[in-house]
Amino acid sequence: MSTITREKVILVTGASSGIGEATVRLLADRRHRLVIGARRTDRLKTLADALNAEGGQVHYRALDVTQHEDMQAFVDFALQTHDRIDVIVNNAGVMPLSPMASLKIDEWDRMIDVNIRGVLYGVAAVLPTMQRQGSGQIINVSSIGGLSVVPTAAVYCATKYAVRALSDGLRQENDKLRVTCVYPGVVESELADTITDPAAAKAMESYRQIALKPEAIATAIAHVIDQPADVDTSEIVVRPTASQ
To answer: Terminus of the chain with fewer CB atoms < 10 Å: N or C?
Structure first.
């Protein structure tokens, strides 16, 4: 395992698969102390056990980011365990794409709850601690869907545009905290498994042909974290070279 100049206490949501899991693996390899959360605690336990067996420092807790009290309890658990919070990676997200005419309102609500409220609750839970510390870093995972809109993705893109706006507003309001918005291009993950609309699912198959591995996004997140304290990478876009 590699070394860093100072280990950090890092919280990661949506850590049971995809970008979240890859990020946890890389940051644990760099000897950071991780507190990870997701709904699927069986996967979290397997991940934490494997990394701890390799010398990592990983604690896990069940987390539903759509519940403010649950997010606060997750952050409180991290504080009780480590006495500080250096970084939170608000990564949890869902992507059930569909044309707006399909009127999948339940899926719209779910995207709003996870993709927007989940980020807001993460920010709200850590902000008092970071302000008290006089330091901290909030990394919000948006999407290239937060930079441009495509058919079947209007509501999803709206939620990711919201993450972009929240991140930049938070950055402007704080001169001691680092705030980064990450825009992944198409990535191999379970996000597409939530698509119930047949046309949207078919279209996603072509996008997936050039998909990045989640480790590419994890590397970008680790790069942002490892910058000096006076350097804030406010935005970072990571997309396949072959994409338009």
So the answer is: C
Cα–Cα distance, 225 to 160 (Å, whole number):
21
pTM of the model: 0.92
What pLDDT shows up at residue 242? 80
Asked whether residue 99 carries a pLDDT value surpassing 70, the answer given is yes
Q: Which residue has the tokens 């206490």?
A: 9
Does the structure show a pLDDT above 90 at 225?
yes
Which amino acid belongs to residue 16? Answer: S
Categorise residue 213: left if φ over 0, alpha if ψ from -120 to 50, beta otherwise: beta
Return d(Cα 156, Cα 122) in angstroms, integer: 19
C-alpha to C-alpha distance for 92 and 6, rounded to whole angstroms:
26
Mean pLDDT of 210-234: 95
Q: How far is CA 93 from CA 7, 143, 185, in A?
A: 27, 10, 14
pLDDT for the residue numbered 187 = 87
d(CA 172, CA 167): 9
Among the listed residues 40, 2, 47, the one whose alpha carbon sits nearest the alpha carbon of residue 22:
47
Q: What pLDDT was estimated at residue 143?
A: 97
Catalytically active residues are: 156
**Alpha helices, H only, the chain:** 18-29, 41-53, 68-82, 105-111, 118-133, 154-173, 198-207, 214-225
- 8 Å CB contact between 132 and 111: no
